[in-house]
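Customer escalation, tier 2.

The customer says the design service returned an amino acid string that "doesn't look like it belongs to this structure." They asked us to rerun it and document both sides in this ticket. The original structure tokens are below, unchanged.
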């Protein structure tokens, strides 16, 4: 499913070859560096878009037609940046697992751009290296999240539930779910009054081209590590992945059914040697 997301986002966000260099650069950079630094990398891709992709920037414009009070918008943006800047400072000054948890999920929710699947490398780098969640549990939950209707951000509730340190369970799930969704709500309310004018700006259009390509590169890096390196360990694993991709992309089988069929297939492959 990550492979399908990479392919679909590449077609939608990088419709021509101009974005390919930034896609591969982001993929290479992310493979060598920690994904929590993606905010600084995204700034680089904005600049790259401004410098090199301006000739092919889109010009179409569709008004949103949604009115939001500008004072409310400014207040929302203020709260968003206070959380984005202030939470890491607080987590450093006052060491607390709960505060570190809120900061990690708030930052991940703030930096997602271009599609929900981009949350995979961001959350993986936040919860797996510190030992909060094992890599196997992370990938199992991510796979199961594909079978659940709704945004992929709900994956945060699963992570909060299976965390090793307290808070976990229901409390941890609610904390992580709220922390990852709050920045999105604040950004939507804060950006709506200004979005129409921003979209018409040539600089914004070209910057978005660079960011879009970087987003695809980030997800491509996640497809290799942790997905490929953790899940494809034998030829049978590769065959199962190809079969799942075929069902999903070419036969248009619903994702929830692909998850179930793949789980049954994996169990069958594991049980086959004992049966022979």
């Amino acid at each position: 499913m990550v492979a399908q997301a990479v392919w679909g986002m590449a077609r939608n966000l990088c419709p021509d070859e101009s974005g390919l260099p930034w896609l591969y650069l982001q993929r290479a950079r992310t493979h060598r560096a920690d994904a929590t630094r993606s905010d600084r990398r995204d700034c680089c891709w904005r600049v790259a878009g401004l410098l090199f992709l301006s000739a092919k920037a889109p010009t179409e414009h569709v008004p949103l037609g949604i009115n939001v009070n500008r004072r409310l918008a400014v207040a929302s943006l203020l709260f968003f940046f206070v959380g984005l800047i202030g939470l890491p400072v607080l987590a450093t000054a006052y060491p607390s697992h709960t505060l570190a948890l809120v900061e990690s999920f708030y930052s991940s929710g703030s930096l997602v751009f271009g599609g929900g699947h981009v949350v995979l490398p961001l959350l993986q780098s936040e919860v797996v290296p510190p030992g909060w969640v094992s890599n196997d549990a992370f990938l199992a939950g991510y796979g199961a999240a594909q079978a659940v209707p709704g945004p992929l951000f709900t994956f945060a509730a699963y992570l909060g539930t299976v965390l090793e340190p307290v808070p976990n369970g229901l409390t941890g799930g609610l904390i992580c779910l709220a922390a990852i969704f709050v920045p999105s709500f604040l950004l939507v309310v804060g950006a709506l009054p200004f979005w129409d004018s921003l979209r018409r700006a040539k600089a914004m259009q070209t910057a978005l081209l660079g960011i879009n390509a970087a987003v695809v590169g980030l997800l491509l890096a996640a497809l290799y590590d942790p997905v490929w390196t953790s899940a494809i360990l034998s030829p049978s694993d590769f065959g199962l992945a190809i079969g799942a991709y075929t069902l999903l992309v070419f036969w248009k089988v619903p994702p929830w059914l692909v998850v179930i069929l793949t789980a049954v297939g994996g169990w069958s492959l594991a049980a086959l040697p004992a049966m022979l």
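Tier 2 assessment: The sequence is consistent with the input. Residues 2-231 form one domain. Residues 63 and 129 are 43 Å apart (CA to CA). Sent an explanation to the customer and offered a walkthrough call.
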